[in-house]
Design a protein that fits this description.
The chain is of the alpha+beta class. The chain has one domain: Hypothetical protein YunC (Hypothetical protein Ta1206 fold). A 6-stranded mixed beta sheet has the order 1-2-3-4-5-6. Strand 4, helix 1 and strand 5 form a beta-alpha-beta unit. The longest helix is centred in the C-terminal third of the chain and has 8 residues. It is globular, with a radius of gyration of 12 Å.
């Protein structure tokens, strides 16, 4: 099952996506420029094989809900995200605000 949900971050309404799969749930919250996602995101792949795309993204591990994704510290971020001042340890919500 796929669920789309509005997620409020500051004064902005963003798009939260929850994909229920067998034994796991994929979570992401996106802006028009980038996104944060659960541990399924392969930041290494985005930084190497897909580097030419300039993807702005961050990964949080151990999250089970969209709210947890907002609150959790990012475990890793893409090189393009770092250019915006997004760094590991930053909360998902703070990273999203920098993506706006």
């Amino acid at each position: 099952m796929v669920t789309l949900e509005p997620v409020q971050v500051g004064d902005h309404t963003l798009v939260g996506v929850e994909v229920k799969l067998p034994k796991t749930t994929l979570l992401s919250i996106s802006t028009s420029r980038g996104y944060i996602m659960c541990g399924a995101l392969d930041v290494g792949l985005l930084n190497t094989r897909l580097a030419d795309r300039g993807i702005i993204a961050g990964r949080a591990v151990g999250v089970r809900t969209l709210q947890q994704l907002l609150e959790a510290p990012l475990e890793s971020v893409t090189a393009e995200a770092e250019k915006l001042g997004i760094v590991p340890g930053m909360s998902g919500a703070e990273a999203l605000l920098r993506m706006l």
